[in-house]
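Format notes (please read before filing issues)

Several people have asked whether sequences and structure tokens are stored in separate files. They are not. Every record keeps both together, in the order shown below: the sequence lines, then the token lines. Line labels are part of the format and must not be stripped during preprocessing.
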Amino acid sequence: MIKHADIGVIGLGVMGENLMLNMEQNGFTVACYNRTAEKVDEFISGRGKGLDFVACHSLAQLADCLKKPRRVLLMVKAGKPVDDIMTTLMPLMEPGDILIDGGNSQFQDTMRRCRETAERGIHFVGAGISGGEDGARHGPSIMPGGADAAWPAIREIFQTIAAKVEGGIPCCEWVGPDGSGHFVKMVHNGIEYGDMQLICEAYHIMSQGLGMTAPEMSQVFHNWNQRELDSYLIEITSDILAKTDQETGQPTVDIILDVAGQKGTGKWTSQVGLDLGAAIPQIAEAVFARSLSAVKDERVAAASLLKGPANKFNGNRNSLLNHLEKALYAAKICSYAQGFQLLRAAAHEYKWPLNYGQIAMLWRGGCIIRARFLDLINDAFLKDPELANLLLAPDFSAVLADAQTSWREVIKTAIDCGIPVPAMSSALCYYDGYRCERLPANLLQAQRDYFGAHTYERTDRPRGQFFHASWAEK
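Then the structure lines:
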């Protein structure tokens, strides 16, 4: 007799396997399939041995053993592999069945797949899943969006396996229609890029500017994690700096090559920011910093040719560390503010009814950017659902006002020491630009009108009226 599984999972990579184990541990029967059949057998005889899994060696077998409406979670590489699986799987599904993409797919692909599956009566869901291997196994943050009709049928499974925060609240809630779930996950990753770069810049100032050892820096990050900067990334940074390489006896961080990789979601975020006209320079700078790290050989050659100041700070170390803590928190606020600005632009462009406070709550547990101050973000949007920018929320504007002197002092010190701080300085420029009543864009518009007759608006006329000057006439 065929066993009827609660959900099927396609793709037994790191995330797929751990999500299946999470589901099974929480009482769900899971059918599993992988393009390479041997991977299924290895899992069933290994990590899944004796547990409530159904091994499937074909998509037809997977479809046959699922309860209706069928729920199938794809955990395969984004792009063509998802489309290839769907091409084979779709004829095996029926109207009302649910297909979920849990990978890091581009939100535009998810929008297209929602349309294509809807034509066949099948409900498509794009679910952003954050938390890495440990999160998948013990409770990730899940950001599902797509066909609304799918949510009642997948809600129990997803909210059961998701991370829980105070009061047992799951870090999983329905985001909105078509590609909104994957869009929110993309923005999460963009904020993550900015957050990580800020922390790396603080580390660079401490290591190169202050000459601090890895254990000393580990203690600083540990102390910061007890206060406003309390977050997963600050916590693991302290752990990383405390780690010693067993082979050399050196701090592990010191023997890691300074070339950063990326999977593309930070780049996607930056590109979409340009497409939607949303100012997210800090996130873009974090992407560019990784790109600059990749030209290691060029940087080594340039180090002996391009001159600059010595990377040493001669002032009071403790004073600068206090300034650095405030500067890092202020810049972190700007990183999240830019992420929510992008969400706001997308909601307007795609007519998505996004709940910004709820999105902040999805990120409180399980995900990479989980942090204490996400509660403040939720509070800000609860008080003012139409809040134009997080920088304007009283809790944050007060922090930024208090941190301003420290923020500027840290950046001046980094410049004096020749230490690059692209994300931290970009954050300050964003703050200064946003609070600037009159930017030099008036001159820019004059230039555009001079060489291209692009026209301009006037300060003494109503908005929406455009003018052109005969610039050659004196």
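For reference, the curators noted about this record: The longest strand covers residues 123-130. The chain has a mean pLDDT of 95.
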